[in-house]
Amino acid sequence: MKKITIISAIILLANFAHARGTQWVTKEKKLHRTFTVQPSGRLSVTNSFGNIVIHTWDKNEVVVDVTMTVKGRSDAKATNMLGRIFMEESGGNNQTITFKSGVESGYSISDGNEIRINYVINMPRRNSLDLENKFGNVDLDDILGNVDLAVSFGELHAQNISGSANDMDLSFGSSTIKSIEGGKLKVQHGGVTIDKIQNIKMDNSFSKVNISSANKLKIIHKFGTLKIGSVDDIDGVVNHSDLKIDHLQKRADLGLNYNGSSVIRHIDGSAENIKIGVGYSTLSCYFDQDTNLDIDVKTEFGSFKNRASSSYVTMTNTDENGNTQYYKGKAGKGRGIMDITGNYSTVFFK
Fold first, then answer.
1. What is the reported pLDDT for 12?
2. DSSP state string for 89-108
3. Which positions ≥6 away from 5 have C-beta within 8 Å?
4. What pTM does this model have?
């Protein structure tokens, strides 16, 4: 069942501001929709030139309020701009609810004129969400369903995203996420700060990424910075970037290439298996006093320097073949495995 309330009156809001002798005119159109939706249903929203705020609740209803606002240099200009906004919608089958909105193709917003299409949505937190927004921000409450999301030229500010198969793409904006359970996340030409990750595949480029805590992380990161507070299991490649990991808990399989500085501040006592390839970079590894690892280091056209306490980390140069050096040793009692290969790189133990 679908209840419909439409406010279609065009409201003349202001006619007072002057700029170079021109009277600015603001006009507005509103849309209100209410839908009943099943737990398996999805909400799909595609928008541009506006912000989207999504609240979640335990009701089986989706309530959508859209405000379309234009500002033009004359009444005729404002009226024409309002007519250039398109709004498409479908729903009512208790399953999929769809909204598409934006500005007509080929229409140029210029000369100080403005168009804004803003959404405020209430939806069930257990339902899934498909969302694409350009030139605007997205605020998202806690959600249990899967999220398929793309935000470009705007910011995402999300709470807990608890679905296991999310697919998110963020570009040209600085975003924040409280937590994300699983799926894929792509960040380009921007940045993201995440408090907690459970199991995510990330693909980042030209971005600044900060992660406080991650359980399992598979990552490709290039041209930017990557900072991780603590991670249990990390697998991937970091190129042309600065990497800092405060706590490496259990496992790592990393390729680090053309990085100015890569630092693992604490290799914890629970570390089991660490494999790192370093190319044209500097890597610094710091060991906790309860770390227990058997260690192999190989360098080609580079160097290895053990500056860790000799009472705890012991390393011996076991072989030399031209520009290749081999080192073996251990941290503590040597229970887990650590294997580092460096090419044209410097590796420090501290």
1. 40
2. EE--SSSEEEEEEEE-TT--
3. 32, 33, 34
4. 0.90
